[in-house]
Amino acid sequence: MEFGLNFFPVFAPERKTAAEYYREVLDLSVLAERHGFEHVQTVEHYGSPYGGYSPDPVTLLTAIAARTERIRITTGAVIPAFTHPLKLAGKLAMLDNLCGGRLDVGFGRGFLPDEFDWFGIPIDESRRRFTEGVEACRRLWSEENVTWEGEFYRFGPITLLPRPVQNPHPPIFVASASSPESCAQAGTDGYHLQIVPSIVSHEVMLEMLDSYRRSWAAAGRPAGAGRVQVKYTCYLSEDRAQALEWGERFENNYIDLMTGAIASWAATTSADYKGYEKLIDKVRTYDFTKSLNDHKVLAGTPAEVTEQLTAIRGWFGDDITVSLQLNPGYMPYEDSRRALELFADHVAPHFGNADV
């Protein structure tokens, strides 16, 4: 089991400025590399305190790449529906060169109706735009004289410059929210997987992973070669009461701001997002204690978080990479830094990560 850092800014601007947040992310990324973490990654969102400090993950990851040498640089995820594939593939190829071939590219569909409205894109097109965008980027990276005639884009012939460092292209991850079918398709296509267990039941999570691994194997690919990143928020302190207080406060901050970001689902329906019109009611029932007991969020002392991760490894396999958010909400930087050091010194070594 390996570990990485996941950065997802969810807080109101009056809590922390963008410049302060970016400085903290850069410092934590350098520290994560020093402690042997496998990757850093960040999201793509717009226009609200729910992730809006990260409208372009490539920009932030480029700054991280300039300050590091070994740690993987990961989009978690970029949204093809919002960017022309020539631009998206070109930006990512530039980043792969700037980081010396350390890039992993996670692609996601997006799920916020307001974001689609702001870009003037029907949300019902999200799945088709996602599929077309991923395939167009893959071809632009790996082929020359590409001619593309799709549903949404037509271009070429063109040979993309710069060419990516990694051959034939950077590793591709697909972000899946809750669909075993999309996980199975990722395995069939030979893509890696990014998933968030906090938003699905334990049974659905197991079904998603099983669908992915069976489809990967059925396509004739080597067992264990499909990489799976599983994302958790982690609240870690020597003082259990402090860790749980942070968890209660910052998880509820996340829920409050997410509720605002998804409010438009109350008046939106889409065949591509079955059941999302009920998402607000589902989010409002969130209970931190239940989430902690179900191991959907990590919180406590190093010994307690080690116990949680041991259970997670037993459920999901020791080949997963756990992507940790250690600076959730508006947590002060020194507390996030201390949590990272505690994790590296007292949790990671239990999972064969002596360098972390």
TrEMBL record:
One Pfam family it belongs to: Bac_luciferase
Domain Luciferase-like: 1-316
InterPro entries hit by this protein: Bact_Lucif_Oxidored, Luciferase-like_dom, Luciferase-like_sf
Signal peptide location: none
PANTHER family: LUCIFERASE-LIKE MONOOXYGENASE
Name this polypeptide is given: LLM class flavin-dependent oxidoreductase
Species: Streptomyces silvisoli
